[in-house]
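for the record, two folds in this file. i put them one after another cuz i was lazy. first one right below, seq on top, C-alpha coordinates after. the second one comes after a little note so u can tell where it starts
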Amino acid sequence: MEQYLVAFITGLTTGGLSCMAVQGGLLASSLAYQIEQDMLTAGNKKSKRVTRPKTALPIVLFLLAKLVAYTFLGLLLGLLGSVLTLNATLRAILLIAIGVFMVGNALRMFNVHPFFRIFAIEPPKFVTRYIRRTAKTNTDWFTPLFLGALTVLIPCGVTQAMMAVALATGDPLQGAALMFAFVLGTSPVFFLVAYLTTQIGARLEKWFMRFVAVVVLVLGLVSMNSGLNLMGSPLAFPSLTAAAQDAPATAFVPDTTDGTLVLNAENYGYSPSRLNAPAGVPLTLNVVTENTYSCSRAFLIPALGVEVILPETGVVPISIPAQPAGTVIPFTCSMGMYTGEIVFGD
Protein backbone atom coordinates (compact mmCIF):
# COMPACT_ATOMS: atom_id res chain seq x y z
CA MET A 1 0.00 0.00 0.00
CA GLU A 2 2.91 2.36 0.72
CA GLN A 3 4.18 2.25 -2.87
CA TYR A 4 0.73 3.27 -4.15
CA LEU A 5 0.63 6.22 -1.74
CA VAL A 6 4.08 7.29 -2.92
CA ALA A 7 2.93 6.99 -6.54
CA PHE A 8 -0.15 9.14 -5.79
CA ILE A 9 1.91 11.84 -4.03
CA THR A 10 4.45 11.84 -6.88
CA GLY A 11 1.63 12.41 -9.36
CA LEU A 12 0.08 15.12 -7.19
CA THR A 13 3.36 17.05 -7.02
CA THR A 14 6.11 16.70 -9.61
CA GLY A 15 4.18 14.37 -11.91
CA GLY A 16 1.23 16.69 -12.38
CA LEU A 17 3.33 19.69 -13.36
CA SER A 18 5.69 17.70 -15.56
CA CYS A 19 2.88 15.93 -17.44
CA MET A 20 0.88 19.13 -17.81
CA ALA A 21 3.79 20.66 -19.70
CA VAL A 22 3.88 17.74 -22.13
CA GLN A 23 0.20 16.81 -22.46
CA GLY A 24 -1.44 20.20 -21.89
CA GLY A 25 -1.75 20.75 -25.63
CA LEU A 26 -3.99 17.72 -26.02
CA LEU A 27 -6.19 18.94 -23.19
CA ALA A 28 -6.43 22.40 -24.78
CA SER A 29 -7.35 20.78 -28.08
CA SER A 30 -10.05 18.68 -26.44
CA LEU A 31 -11.65 21.83 -24.99
CA ALA A 32 -11.47 23.86 -28.19
CA TYR A 33 -14.33 22.07 -29.98
CA GLN A 34 -16.63 22.31 -26.96
CA ILE A 35 -15.95 26.03 -26.56
CA GLU A 36 -16.61 26.61 -30.25
CA GLN A 37 -19.94 24.77 -29.99
CA ASP A 38 -20.96 26.74 -26.90
CA MET A 39 -20.15 30.05 -28.54
CA LEU A 40 -21.89 29.03 -31.78
CA THR A 41 -25.01 28.02 -29.86
CA ALA A 42 -24.98 31.28 -27.92
CA GLY A 43 -24.61 33.21 -31.15
CA ASN A 44 -27.64 31.47 -32.68
CA LYS A 45 -29.87 32.30 -29.75
CA LYS A 46 -32.06 35.38 -29.85
CA SER A 47 -30.76 36.44 -26.49
CA LYS A 48 -27.55 38.42 -26.61
CA ARG A 49 -26.37 36.93 -23.34
CA VAL A 50 -23.36 34.66 -23.92
CA THR A 51 -23.38 31.39 -22.05
CA ARG A 52 -20.24 30.48 -20.15
CA PRO A 53 -18.46 27.54 -21.85
CA LYS A 54 -19.33 24.12 -20.37
CA THR A 55 -15.74 23.03 -19.82
CA ALA A 56 -15.91 21.04 -16.57
CA LEU A 57 -17.41 17.91 -18.15
CA PRO A 58 -14.95 17.75 -21.09
CA ILE A 59 -12.04 18.09 -18.65
CA VAL A 60 -13.43 15.28 -16.49
CA LEU A 61 -13.95 13.08 -19.56
CA PHE A 62 -10.39 13.78 -20.74
CA LEU A 63 -8.95 12.87 -17.33
CA LEU A 64 -11.16 9.79 -17.04
CA ALA A 65 -10.00 8.48 -20.41
CA LYS A 66 -6.40 9.19 -19.44
CA LEU A 67 -6.84 7.35 -16.14
CA VAL A 68 -8.36 4.29 -17.83
CA ALA A 69 -5.71 4.24 -20.58
CA TYR A 70 -2.77 4.40 -18.16
CA THR A 71 -4.31 1.85 -15.81
CA PHE A 72 -4.65 -0.54 -18.74
CA LEU A 73 -1.07 0.24 -19.77
CA GLY A 74 0.12 -0.56 -16.25
CA LEU A 75 -1.67 -3.89 -16.45
CA LEU A 76 0.02 -4.69 -19.75
CA LEU A 77 3.43 -3.55 -18.49
CA GLY A 78 3.16 -5.84 -15.50
CA LEU A 79 2.04 -8.68 -17.77
CA LEU A 80 4.26 -8.37 -20.81
CA GLY A 81 7.24 -6.32 -19.64
CA SER A 82 9.50 -4.45 -22.00
CA VAL A 83 7.62 -5.61 -25.11
CA LEU A 84 5.41 -2.55 -24.76
CA THR A 85 8.18 0.00 -24.28
CA LEU A 86 8.15 2.67 -27.01
CA ASN A 87 11.58 3.46 -28.40
CA ALA A 88 12.80 7.01 -28.92
CA THR A 89 12.17 7.03 -32.67
CA LEU A 90 8.54 5.96 -32.32
CA ARG A 91 7.93 8.52 -29.56
CA ALA A 92 9.49 11.19 -31.77
CA ILE A 93 7.18 10.30 -34.65
CA LEU A 94 4.17 10.41 -32.34
CA LEU A 95 5.19 13.79 -30.92
CA ILE A 96 5.62 15.25 -34.39
CA ALA A 97 2.29 13.79 -35.57
CA ILE A 98 0.48 15.18 -32.53
CA GLY A 99 2.21 18.52 -33.05
CA VAL A 100 1.02 18.61 -36.67
CA PHE A 101 -2.52 17.87 -35.48
CA MET A 102 -2.45 20.70 -32.93
CA VAL A 103 -1.00 23.21 -35.41
CA GLY A 104 -3.64 22.21 -37.97
CA ASN A 105 -6.35 22.51 -35.34
CA ALA A 106 -5.14 26.00 -34.40
CA LEU A 107 -5.14 27.10 -38.04
CA ARG A 108 -8.68 25.73 -38.33
CA MET A 109 -9.77 27.89 -35.39
CA PHE A 110 -8.17 30.90 -37.08
CA ASN A 111 -10.19 30.08 -40.24
CA VAL A 112 -7.01 30.20 -42.32
CA HIS A 113 -8.36 27.85 -45.02
CA PRO A 114 -11.21 25.32 -45.33
CA PHE A 115 -8.57 22.58 -45.73
CA PHE A 116 -7.81 22.71 -42.01
CA ARG A 117 -11.33 21.53 -41.17
CA ILE A 118 -9.95 17.99 -41.50
CA PHE A 119 -8.27 18.51 -38.13
CA ALA A 120 -11.61 18.72 -36.30
CA ILE A 121 -12.11 15.43 -34.43
CA GLU A 122 -15.76 14.47 -34.39
CA PRO A 123 -17.66 11.22 -33.76
CA PRO A 124 -19.18 9.33 -36.69
CA LYS A 125 -22.19 11.06 -38.25
CA PHE A 126 -24.70 8.45 -37.05
CA VAL A 127 -23.46 8.97 -33.47
CA THR A 128 -23.71 12.76 -33.89
CA ARG A 129 -27.28 12.49 -35.17
CA TYR A 130 -28.22 10.27 -32.23
CA ILE A 131 -26.72 12.71 -29.72
CA ARG A 132 -28.55 15.64 -31.29
CA ARG A 133 -31.84 13.80 -31.05
CA THR A 134 -31.46 12.68 -27.46
CA ALA A 135 -29.13 15.09 -25.67
CA LYS A 136 -30.44 18.12 -23.81
CA THR A 137 -27.10 19.88 -24.14
CA ASN A 138 -24.56 20.07 -26.91
CA THR A 139 -21.65 18.83 -24.82
CA ASP A 140 -19.12 16.97 -26.94
CA TRP A 141 -17.82 13.79 -25.32
CA PHE A 142 -15.98 12.03 -28.15
CA THR A 143 -13.09 14.49 -28.53
CA PRO A 144 -11.99 14.65 -24.85
CA LEU A 145 -12.28 10.86 -24.50
CA PHE A 146 -10.22 10.26 -27.63
CA LEU A 147 -7.50 12.79 -26.80
CA GLY A 148 -7.40 11.75 -23.15
CA ALA A 149 -6.67 8.17 -24.21
CA LEU A 150 -4.08 9.48 -26.68
CA THR A 151 -1.94 10.84 -23.83
CA VAL A 152 -0.78 7.29 -23.17
CA LEU A 153 1.40 7.62 -26.28
CA ILE A 154 3.32 10.68 -24.98
CA PRO A 155 4.21 10.01 -21.34
CA CYS A 156 6.33 12.62 -19.57
CA GLY A 157 9.62 11.72 -17.92
CA VAL A 158 8.14 11.20 -14.45
CA THR A 159 5.45 8.97 -15.97
CA GLN A 160 8.11 6.93 -17.75
CA ALA A 161 9.92 6.42 -14.46
CA MET A 162 6.64 5.19 -12.96
CA MET A 163 6.13 2.92 -15.98
CA ALA A 164 9.55 1.42 -15.29
CA VAL A 165 8.44 0.70 -11.71
CA ALA A 166 5.23 -0.92 -13.02
CA LEU A 167 7.34 -2.98 -15.39
CA ALA A 168 9.53 -4.17 -12.53
CA THR A 169 6.55 -5.44 -10.52
CA GLY A 170 6.06 -8.34 -12.92
CA ASP A 171 2.42 -8.42 -11.80
CA PRO A 172 -0.43 -7.05 -13.95
CA LEU A 173 -2.62 -6.06 -11.00
CA GLN A 174 0.19 -4.28 -9.18
CA GLY A 175 1.25 -2.55 -12.38
CA ALA A 176 -2.31 -1.38 -13.02
CA ALA A 177 -2.79 -0.18 -9.43
CA LEU A 178 0.51 1.69 -9.50
CA MET A 179 -0.30 3.58 -12.70
CA PHE A 180 -3.85 4.23 -11.49
CA ALA A 181 -2.57 5.82 -8.27
CA PHE A 182 0.00 7.94 -10.10
CA VAL A 183 -2.33 9.26 -12.84
CA LEU A 184 -5.07 9.88 -10.27
CA GLY A 185 -2.57 12.06 -8.42
CA THR A 186 -1.85 14.11 -11.57
CA SER A 187 -5.54 14.76 -12.24
CA PRO A 188 -6.17 17.63 -9.77
CA VAL A 189 -3.40 19.71 -11.36
CA PHE A 190 -4.80 19.13 -14.86
CA PHE A 191 -8.35 19.97 -13.79
CA LEU A 192 -7.55 23.10 -11.80
CA VAL A 193 -5.25 24.62 -14.41
CA ALA A 194 -7.61 23.90 -17.31
CA TYR A 195 -10.81 24.89 -15.53
CA LEU A 196 -9.50 28.13 -14.03
CA THR A 197 -7.99 29.12 -17.38
CA THR A 198 -11.25 28.60 -19.26
CA GLN A 199 -13.37 30.36 -16.61
CA ILE A 200 -11.10 33.39 -16.62
CA GLY A 201 -11.18 33.37 -20.40
CA ALA A 202 -14.98 33.08 -20.42
CA ARG A 203 -15.15 36.70 -19.27
CA LEU A 204 -13.50 37.66 -22.54
CA GLU A 205 -15.66 35.56 -24.86
CA LYS A 206 -14.92 37.62 -27.93
CA TRP A 207 -11.20 36.96 -27.73
CA PHE A 208 -11.11 33.62 -25.93
CA MET A 209 -11.14 31.38 -29.03
CA ARG A 210 -8.20 33.30 -30.42
CA PHE A 211 -6.42 32.80 -27.11
CA VAL A 212 -7.12 29.04 -27.22
CA ALA A 213 -5.96 28.90 -30.85
CA VAL A 214 -2.68 30.63 -29.99
CA VAL A 215 -2.08 28.24 -27.05
CA VAL A 216 -2.77 25.19 -29.21
CA LEU A 217 -0.53 26.55 -31.98
CA VAL A 218 2.39 27.22 -29.63
CA LEU A 219 2.07 23.84 -27.89
CA GLY A 220 1.85 22.13 -31.28
CA LEU A 221 5.11 23.73 -32.37
CA VAL A 222 6.69 22.74 -29.05
CA SER A 223 5.54 19.13 -29.57
CA MET A 224 7.01 19.05 -33.09
CA ASN A 225 10.28 20.51 -31.82
CA SER A 226 10.41 17.92 -29.03
CA GLY A 227 10.04 15.15 -31.61
CA LEU A 228 12.87 16.63 -33.68
CA ASN A 229 15.03 16.81 -30.54
CA LEU A 230 14.40 13.12 -29.88
CA MET A 231 15.55 12.30 -33.40
CA GLY A 232 18.67 14.42 -32.95
CA SER A 233 17.56 16.42 -35.99
CA PRO A 234 19.53 19.53 -37.05
CA LEU A 235 16.12 21.13 -37.70
CA ALA A 236 15.32 21.20 -33.98
CA PHE A 237 15.20 24.69 -32.49
CA PRO A 238 18.29 24.28 -30.23
CA SER A 239 20.37 23.07 -33.20
CA LEU A 240 19.20 25.93 -35.42
CA THR A 241 19.90 28.58 -32.77
CA ALA A 242 23.30 27.06 -31.97
CA ALA A 243 24.25 27.14 -35.66
CA ALA A 244 23.07 30.75 -35.99
CA GLN A 245 25.02 31.85 -32.93
CA ASP A 246 28.31 30.13 -33.69
CA ALA A 247 31.09 32.44 -32.57
CA PRO A 248 34.51 32.72 -34.22
CA ALA A 249 36.80 29.81 -33.42
CA THR A 250 38.51 30.05 -30.04
CA ALA A 251 40.85 27.77 -28.14
CA PHE A 252 39.11 24.46 -27.47
CA VAL A 253 39.30 23.48 -23.80
CA PRO A 254 38.07 19.96 -22.98
CA ASP A 255 35.95 19.46 -19.87
CA THR A 256 37.95 16.37 -18.94
CA THR A 257 41.56 15.40 -18.40
CA ASP A 258 41.00 11.81 -17.29
CA GLY A 259 38.51 10.58 -19.91
CA THR A 260 35.48 11.27 -17.71
CA LEU A 261 32.76 13.83 -18.40
CA VAL A 262 30.28 14.86 -15.70
CA LEU A 263 26.72 15.92 -16.51
CA ASN A 264 24.18 16.96 -13.87
CA ALA A 265 20.58 15.95 -14.61
CA GLU A 266 18.59 18.50 -12.65
CA ASN A 267 14.87 19.13 -12.29
CA TYR A 268 14.98 21.95 -14.84
CA GLY A 269 17.42 20.53 -17.36
CA TYR A 270 21.03 19.47 -17.81
CA SER A 271 24.09 21.28 -16.52
CA PRO A 272 26.26 22.09 -18.29
CA SER A 273 24.18 22.09 -21.46
CA ARG A 274 27.37 21.90 -23.54
CA LEU A 275 30.28 19.57 -22.83
CA ASN A 276 33.65 19.86 -24.59
CA ALA A 277 35.29 16.49 -25.18
CA PRO A 278 38.63 15.50 -26.73
CA ALA A 279 38.37 13.79 -30.11
CA GLY A 280 39.80 10.39 -30.95
CA VAL A 281 39.55 8.78 -27.50
CA PRO A 282 36.77 6.80 -25.77
CA LEU A 283 35.13 8.56 -22.85
CA THR A 284 32.84 7.90 -19.91
CA LEU A 285 29.91 10.22 -19.32
CA ASN A 286 28.82 10.19 -15.69
CA VAL A 287 25.24 11.45 -15.43
CA VAL A 288 24.57 12.63 -11.88
CA THR A 289 21.17 13.04 -10.22
CA GLU A 290 20.32 14.39 -6.78
CA ASN A 291 16.65 14.43 -5.79
CA THR A 292 15.73 14.69 -9.47
CA TYR A 293 12.12 13.95 -10.41
CA SER A 294 11.58 15.70 -13.74
CA CYS A 295 11.74 14.53 -17.34
CA SER A 296 15.53 14.86 -17.25
CA ARG A 297 15.67 11.46 -15.52
CA ALA A 298 14.72 9.81 -18.80
CA PHE A 299 18.05 10.42 -20.56
CA LEU A 300 18.74 9.82 -24.25
CA ILE A 301 21.63 10.18 -26.67
CA PRO A 302 19.81 9.48 -29.97
CA ALA A 303 22.94 9.21 -32.13
CA LEU A 304 24.38 6.48 -29.90
CA GLY A 305 21.14 4.65 -29.19
CA VAL A 306 21.45 5.39 -25.46
CA GLU A 307 18.18 5.46 -23.50
CA VAL A 308 18.25 5.09 -19.71
CA ILE A 309 16.00 5.92 -16.76
CA LEU A 310 18.20 7.60 -14.16
CA PRO A 311 17.68 7.03 -10.43
CA GLU A 312 16.33 9.88 -8.30
CA THR A 313 19.79 10.18 -6.74
CA GLY A 314 22.92 8.52 -8.04
CA VAL A 315 25.49 8.32 -10.82
CA VAL A 316 25.03 6.43 -14.09
CA PRO A 317 28.15 5.92 -16.26
CA ILE A 318 27.64 5.87 -20.04
CA SER A 319 30.38 4.83 -22.47
CA ILE A 320 31.03 7.23 -25.34
CA PRO A 321 33.09 5.77 -28.22
CA ALA A 322 35.88 7.80 -29.79
CA GLN A 323 34.62 10.51 -32.15
CA PRO A 324 36.38 12.57 -34.85
CA ALA A 325 37.02 16.26 -34.28
CA GLY A 326 34.06 18.46 -35.16
CA THR A 327 31.45 15.90 -34.14
CA VAL A 328 28.50 17.22 -32.17
CA ILE A 329 26.33 14.66 -30.33
CA PRO A 330 23.04 16.02 -28.91
CA PHE A 331 21.45 14.59 -25.76
CA THR A 332 17.92 15.10 -24.52
CA CYS A 333 15.26 13.94 -22.10
CA SER A 334 12.78 11.38 -23.39
CA MET A 335 10.24 14.05 -24.35
CA GLY A 336 12.68 16.44 -26.01
CA MET A 337 12.05 19.15 -23.41
CA TYR A 338 15.57 19.43 -21.99
CA THR A 339 18.53 19.27 -24.34
CA GLY A 340 22.29 19.69 -24.58
CA GLU A 341 25.26 18.56 -26.64
CA ILE A 342 28.74 17.05 -26.50
CA VAL A 343 31.21 18.79 -28.79
CA PHE A 344 34.39 16.97 -29.82
CA GLY A 345 37.51 18.96 -30.70
CA ASP A 346 41.27 18.77 -30.79
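(here's the note) second protein begins now
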Amino acid sequence: MARNIPSGPPPPPPVQKLRLRYTKRGRLRFTSHRDIARAFERALRRAQVPMAYSAGFSPHPKISWVGAAPTGVASEAEYVEISVAERVDLVRLQQALDESLPAGIDITEVVEAPLGSNLPDRIEASDWSILLPGVSLDTAQQAVSQFLTAAEIPVERLMKQGLRTLDARAAVVRMSAAGDQDCATLSVVVRHVTPAVRPDDVLSGLRSVADLAPPMPPQATRLAQGPLSETGEVSDPLAPDRPSPEGPGATRAGADLEQVAAGSPS
Protein backbone atom coordinates (compact mmCIF):
# COMPACT_ATOMS: atom_id res chain seq x y z
CA MET A 1 0.00 0.00 0.00
CA ALA A 2 1.32 3.40 -0.96
CA ARG A 3 2.25 5.63 1.94
CA ASN A 4 0.47 8.99 2.15
CA ILE A 5 2.92 11.87 2.29
CA PRO A 6 1.86 15.46 3.04
CA SER A 7 2.13 17.68 -0.01
CA GLY A 8 4.22 20.84 0.00
CA PRO A 9 7.49 21.67 1.72
CA PRO A 10 7.95 20.95 5.43
CA PRO A 11 7.51 23.88 7.82
CA PRO A 12 10.65 25.85 8.68
CA PRO A 13 12.44 24.57 11.78
CA PRO A 14 12.37 26.50 15.08
CA VAL A 15 15.16 29.05 15.46
CA GLN A 16 14.27 30.33 18.92
CA LYS A 17 12.60 28.88 22.03
CA LEU A 18 10.92 31.29 24.44
CA ARG A 19 9.69 30.72 27.98
CA LEU A 20 6.89 32.92 29.28
CA ARG A 21 5.72 33.40 32.84
CA TYR A 22 2.18 34.70 33.13
CA THR A 23 -0.56 35.29 35.69
CA LYS A 24 -4.08 34.00 36.14
CA ARG A 25 -5.94 36.58 38.23
CA GLY A 26 -9.39 37.73 39.22
CA ARG A 27 -12.33 36.07 37.51
CA LEU A 28 -9.97 34.07 35.31
CA ARG A 29 -9.32 31.79 38.28
CA PHE A 30 -12.58 30.08 37.23
CA THR A 31 -11.41 29.64 33.63
CA SER A 32 -10.37 26.17 32.50
CA HIS A 33 -6.88 25.52 31.17
CA ARG A 34 -8.37 24.71 27.76
CA ASP A 35 -9.91 28.19 27.54
CA ILE A 36 -6.65 29.78 28.72
CA ALA A 37 -4.84 27.92 25.95
CA ARG A 38 -7.34 29.12 23.36
CA ALA A 39 -6.92 32.71 24.54
CA PHE A 40 -3.14 32.36 24.17
CA GLU A 41 -3.42 30.92 20.67
CA ARG A 42 -5.66 33.82 19.61
CA ALA A 43 -3.24 36.31 21.16
CA LEU A 44 -0.30 34.77 19.32
CA ARG A 45 -2.16 35.15 16.02
CA ARG A 46 -3.19 38.75 16.78
CA ALA A 47 0.36 39.64 17.78
CA GLN A 48 1.59 38.06 14.50
CA VAL A 49 4.15 35.92 16.29
CA PRO A 50 6.04 33.83 13.66
CA MET A 51 5.26 30.50 15.27
CA ALA A 52 7.09 27.32 14.34
CA TYR A 53 4.75 24.46 13.36
CA SER A 54 4.89 20.71 13.54
CA ALA A 55 5.08 18.66 10.35
CA GLY A 56 2.48 16.20 9.09
CA PHE A 57 -1.12 16.38 7.85
CA SER A 58 -2.32 18.54 10.76
CA PRO A 59 0.42 21.07 11.59
CA HIS A 60 -0.01 22.83 14.91
CA PRO A 61 1.97 25.64 16.57
CA LYS A 62 4.77 24.52 18.86
CA ILE A 63 3.35 25.46 22.25
CA SER A 64 4.16 23.53 25.41
CA TRP A 65 2.23 24.11 28.65
CA VAL A 66 3.99 23.55 31.96
CA GLY A 67 2.18 22.69 35.21
CA ALA A 68 -1.09 24.53 34.50
CA ALA A 69 -3.09 25.56 37.58
CA PRO A 70 -6.43 23.80 38.12
CA THR A 71 -9.74 25.57 37.55
CA GLY A 72 -10.85 27.65 40.52
CA VAL A 73 -7.46 28.89 41.69
CA ALA A 74 -5.42 31.97 40.84
CA SER A 75 -1.73 32.00 39.99
CA GLU A 76 1.22 34.36 39.83
CA ALA A 77 3.50 31.75 38.28
CA GLU A 78 2.17 29.97 35.19
CA TYR A 79 4.56 28.93 32.43
CA VAL A 80 4.35 28.21 28.73
CA GLU A 81 7.04 27.54 26.11
CA ILE A 82 6.75 28.57 22.47
CA SER A 83 9.04 28.01 19.48
CA VAL A 84 9.28 30.51 16.63
CA ALA A 85 10.47 30.20 13.04
CA GLU A 86 12.01 33.70 13.05
CA ARG A 87 13.89 35.45 15.83
CA VAL A 88 11.78 37.97 17.74
CA ASP A 89 12.49 40.85 20.10
CA LEU A 90 11.50 39.78 23.62
CA VAL A 91 10.30 43.20 24.77
CA ARG A 92 8.13 43.73 21.69
CA LEU A 93 6.74 40.20 21.98
CA GLN A 94 5.75 40.77 25.61
CA GLN A 95 4.07 44.09 24.80
CA ALA A 96 2.19 42.66 21.82
CA LEU A 97 0.91 39.66 23.78
CA ASP A 98 -0.14 41.78 26.76
CA GLU A 99 -2.22 43.94 24.41
CA SER A 100 -3.87 40.86 22.90
CA LEU A 101 -4.60 38.83 26.06
CA PRO A 102 -7.69 39.31 28.26
CA ALA A 103 -7.45 41.17 31.56
CA GLY A 104 -6.16 38.83 34.26
CA ILE A 105 -3.55 37.18 32.05
CA ASP A 106 -0.39 39.27 32.24
CA ILE A 107 2.99 38.29 30.83
CA THR A 108 5.44 38.97 33.66
CA GLU A 109 8.62 37.63 32.06
CA VAL A 110 9.97 36.32 28.77
CA VAL A 111 13.33 34.58 28.46
CA GLU A 112 15.11 32.82 25.62
CA ALA A 113 16.03 29.19 26.25
CA PRO A 114 18.31 26.76 24.39
CA LEU A 115 16.61 24.70 21.73
CA GLY A 116 16.11 21.18 23.02
CA SER A 117 16.03 22.16 26.71
CA ASN A 118 13.09 21.04 28.82
CA LEU A 119 11.42 23.32 31.39
CA PRO A 120 9.13 20.64 32.96
CA ASP A 121 12.26 18.93 34.34
CA ARG A 122 12.70 21.93 36.65
CA ILE A 123 9.13 22.06 37.95
CA GLU A 124 9.20 20.01 41.14
CA ALA A 125 6.86 21.81 43.56
CA SER A 126 4.40 24.68 44.00
CA ASP A 127 4.13 27.31 46.73
CA TRP A 128 0.45 28.00 47.51
CA SER A 129 -1.27 30.68 49.57
CA ILE A 130 -4.76 29.64 50.72
CA LEU A 131 -6.97 32.33 52.22
CA LEU A 132 -9.48 31.02 54.78
CA PRO A 133 -12.15 33.72 55.39
CA GLY A 134 -13.96 33.23 58.68
CA VAL A 135 -11.31 30.88 60.09
CA SER A 136 -9.32 32.18 63.08
CA LEU A 137 -5.56 31.92 63.25
CA ASP A 138 -5.74 29.68 66.34
CA THR A 139 -8.07 27.26 64.58
CA ALA A 140 -5.89 27.18 61.46
CA GLN A 141 -2.70 26.58 63.46
CA GLN A 142 -4.27 23.68 65.36
CA ALA A 143 -5.44 22.15 62.07
CA VAL A 144 -1.98 22.56 60.52
CA SER A 145 -0.38 20.84 63.52
CA GLN A 146 -2.75 17.88 63.23
CA PHE A 147 -2.16 17.66 59.49
CA LEU A 148 1.63 17.67 59.78
CA THR A 149 1.72 15.04 62.53
CA ALA A 150 -0.42 12.59 60.54
CA ALA A 151 1.48 9.78 58.84
CA GLU A 152 -1.04 9.51 56.00
CA ILE A 153 -4.14 11.46 54.99
CA PRO A 154 -6.21 9.69 52.32
CA VAL A 155 -8.63 11.91 50.40
CA GLU A 156 -10.91 11.09 47.48
CA ARG A 157 -11.16 12.93 44.17
CA LEU A 158 -13.42 12.22 41.22
CA MET A 159 -11.33 11.80 38.05
CA LYS A 160 -12.08 10.73 34.50
CA GLN A 161 -11.34 7.14 35.51
CA GLY A 162 -13.69 7.40 38.49
CA LEU A 163 -13.23 8.01 42.21
CA ARG A 164 -9.58 7.82 43.28
CA THR A 165 -7.89 7.96 46.68
CA LEU A 166 -4.83 10.21 47.12
CA ASP A 167 -2.47 10.71 50.06
CA ALA A 168 -2.64 14.47 50.69
CA ARG A 169 -0.02 14.32 53.45
CA ALA A 170 2.74 12.70 51.40
CA ALA A 171 2.88 15.54 48.87
CA VAL A 172 3.00 18.41 51.40
CA VAL A 173 6.59 19.50 52.06
CA ARG A 174 5.74 22.21 54.57
CA MET A 175 2.70 24.11 55.85
CA SER A 176 2.16 27.06 58.17
CA ALA A 177 -0.62 29.47 59.12
CA ALA A 178 -0.62 33.26 59.52
CA GLY A 179 -3.24 36.00 59.71
CA ASP A 180 -5.62 37.08 62.47
CA GLN A 181 -8.74 35.91 64.28
CA ASP A 182 -11.01 36.83 61.37
CA CYS A 183 -9.09 35.34 58.46
CA ALA A 184 -6.19 32.91 58.43
CA THR A 185 -3.89 32.24 55.50
CA LEU A 186 -2.16 28.93 54.86
CA SER A 187 1.25 28.80 53.23
CA VAL A 188 1.74 25.37 51.68
CA VAL A 189 4.53 23.91 49.58
CA VAL A 190 3.30 20.87 47.65
CA ARG A 191 5.58 18.50 45.78
CA HIS A 192 4.44 17.67 42.25
CA VAL A 193 3.43 14.03 42.14
CA THR A 194 1.24 11.90 39.89
CA PRO A 195 -1.66 12.31 40.24
CA ALA A 196 -1.19 15.90 41.39
CA VAL A 197 -2.25 16.92 44.89
CA ARG A 198 -4.17 20.20 44.55
CA PRO A 199 -5.19 22.86 47.10
CA ASP A 200 -8.66 21.29 47.26
CA ASP A 201 -7.05 18.00 48.28
CA VAL A 202 -5.07 19.73 51.03
CA LEU A 203 -8.28 21.35 52.31
CA SER A 204 -10.03 17.97 52.20
CA GLY A 205 -7.18 16.56 54.27
CA LEU A 206 -7.50 19.35 56.84
CA ARG A 207 -11.22 18.67 57.06
CA SER A 208 -10.54 14.96 57.52
CA VAL A 209 -7.95 15.20 60.31
CA ALA A 210 -9.00 18.45 62.04
CA ASP A 211 -12.62 19.00 61.03
CA LEU A 212 -11.60 22.33 59.46
CA ALA A 213 -14.58 23.58 57.44
CA PRO A 214 -14.27 27.26 56.40
CA PRO A 215 -17.66 29.05 56.51
CA MET A 216 -16.80 30.85 53.26
CA PRO A 217 -15.09 29.55 50.11
CA PRO A 218 -11.28 29.45 50.45
CA GLN A 219 -9.19 31.32 47.88
CA ALA A 220 -6.05 29.58 46.63
CA THR A 221 -3.27 31.39 44.76
CA ARG A 222 -0.10 29.82 43.42
CA LEU A 223 2.81 32.11 44.24
CA ALA A 224 5.59 30.08 42.66
CA GLN A 225 6.48 26.77 41.07
CA GLY A 226 9.89 25.41 40.24
CA PRO A 227 12.82 23.43 41.67
CA LEU A 228 12.51 22.31 45.29
CA SER A 229 15.44 23.08 47.61
CA GLU A 230 16.58 20.91 50.53
CA THR A 231 15.02 23.45 52.91
CA GLY A 232 11.60 23.16 51.26
CA GLU A 233 11.80 26.42 49.29
CA VAL A 234 10.57 26.74 45.71
CA SER A 235 13.19 28.29 43.43
CA ASP A 236 12.85 30.25 40.20
CA PRO A 237 12.77 27.83 37.22
CA LEU A 238 13.81 30.56 34.76
CA ALA A 239 17.00 31.48 36.64
CA PRO A 240 19.27 29.24 34.51
CA ASP A 241 17.98 30.96 31.34
CA ARG A 242 18.48 34.50 32.58
CA PRO A 243 21.99 35.84 31.79
CA SER A 244 21.69 38.60 34.40
CA PRO A 245 18.87 40.25 36.40
CA GLU A 246 18.54 43.01 33.81
CA GLY A 247 20.56 41.48 30.99
CA PRO A 248 19.71 41.35 27.26
CA GLY A 249 18.47 37.77 27.44
CA ALA A 250 15.41 38.49 29.55
CA THR A 251 12.67 41.02 30.06
CA ARG A 252 10.62 41.39 33.22
CA ALA A 253 7.43 43.24 34.03
CA GLY A 254 5.25 43.79 37.05
CA ALA A 255 6.29 42.54 40.47
CA ASP A 256 9.77 41.11 40.91
CA LEU A 257 10.37 37.65 42.33
CA GLU A 258 10.60 38.90 45.90
CA GLN A 259 7.17 40.56 45.61
CA VAL A 260 5.69 37.46 44.02
CA ALA A 261 7.07 35.28 46.80
CA ALA A 262 5.48 37.62 49.34
CA GLY A 263 2.09 37.30 47.63
CA SER A 264 0.31 39.31 44.98
CA PRO A 265 -3.33 40.31 44.64
CA SER A 266 -5.43 37.85 42.71
